Amino acid sequence: MSKNIYVGNLTWGATDADLRSLFSQYGEVTSARVIEDRETGRSRGFGFVEMEDNGALQAIQELNGTKFQGRDLKVNEAQPRESRPRRF
């Protein structure tokens, strides 16, 4: 099984490859993605990493609150996205 991990407080310059590199120390990373604004293409300051369970738990414990590219990361298990009303 794999876990989806939320990674917040990223610098604007953080890339998918940066996340993959950081989390690969703890196990096999299935995917790593920095979320970008649809209109500007600029980072929104958070991302998601998917990796196997044991490595994910260790990564969450060890990386939450640590400095990465000069900012304190917020790392925890991702929660399902809440449904929002559609806008027209």
TrEMBL record:
InterPro entries: Nucleotide-bd_a/b_plait_sf, RBD_domain_sf, RRM2_NsCP33-like, RRM_dom. Signal peptide: none annotated. CDD domains: RRM2_NsCP33_like. Coiled coil: none annotated. SUPFAM superfamilies: RNA-binding domain, RBD. One of its GO terms (molecular function) is RNA binding. The keyword Protease does not apply. Keywords: RNA-binding. Transmembrane segments: none annotated. The keyword RNA-binding applies. Residues 3-80 form the RRM domain. This is RNA recognition motif-containing protein. It comes from Desulfobaculum xiamenense. The lineage of its organism: Bacteria, Pseudomonadati, Thermodesulfobacteriota, Desulfovibrionia, Desulfovibrionales.
